[in-house]
């Protein structure tokens, strides 16, 4: 069966300036919101996290490494451990660390209150383009290996993250992903709501850099603490080459 990923009539638009989602309207209505509002905890947005010059530099760095084809018209570059989600196995394998250009992003993230103790162990760069109809179906990021906060830096163009309660939910919340902004997804937005991106909302090339931290099991005090520390030591060398590069 072909499941068409379309949005319900009850679209709410999340406003990062009000920290609420408003029924109907448009993504850029602020301050003229109307319609019922919904509390929508678990989204933090830092607009202009990087400058246009930094964006250009980061994009140039990204395109010096090869991409591999991914699902739904996306291409990706992975820097992280090899994870078998079904068997719950994680291996450092060919992981050589996060890429060099992410060192400055890591440092800057530390200056954001909600991320001051954020220790990323994985980076995935995704490329979306309208020509390939790139999108991502609604999903939860894995809960066994990945921790509370999902952090994404948005590059290239604006788009919208669509949050739904299930595949065919009749309520959706559209969250703006501004170019050069950083978004942190946590709490209910991470655990209760699924997230995805519609192909209609990819109108120009977009690059998303997602950083993930390890779950509590791999953190100090957890029973996989040593494994976690080892992965983190590798990640934070910032000497990584993408997994796809190894196969060439
Ligand atoms: O492209 C994005 O902003 C979201 C990507 C995502 O949800 C994922 O890689 O799990
Ligand atoms: Fe995701």
From TrEMBL:
<comment type="similarity">
    <text>Belongs to the iron/ascorbate-dependent oxidoreductase family.</text>
</comment>
<protein>
    <submittedName>
        <fullName>Alpha-ketoglutarate-dependent dioxygenase alkB homolog 4-like isoform X2</fullName>
    </submittedName>
</protein>
<dbReference type="InterPro" id="IPR032857">
    <property type="entry name" value="ALKBH4"/>
</dbReference>
<feature type="domain" description="Fe2OG dioxygenase">
    <location>
        <begin position="120"/>
        <end position="215"/>
    </location>
</feature>
<keyword id="KW-0560">Oxidoreductase</keyword>
<dbReference type="GO" id="GO:0070988">
    <property type="term" value="P:demethylation"/>
</dbReference>
<dbReference type="InterPro" id="IPR037151">
    <property type="entry name" value="AlkB-like_sf"/>
</dbReference>
<dbReference type="GO" id="GO:0016491">
    <property type="term" value="F:oxidoreductase activity"/>
</dbReference>
<dbReference type="GO" id="GO:0046872">
    <property type="term" value="F:metal ion binding"/>
</dbReference>
<dbReference type="InterPro" id="IPR005123">
    <property type="entry name" value="Oxoglu/Fe-dep_dioxygenase_dom"/>
</dbReference>
<keyword id="KW-0408">Iron</keyword>
<dbReference type="GO" id="GO:0032451">
    <property type="term" value="F:demethylase activity"/>
</dbReference>
<keyword id="KW-0479">Metal-binding</keyword>
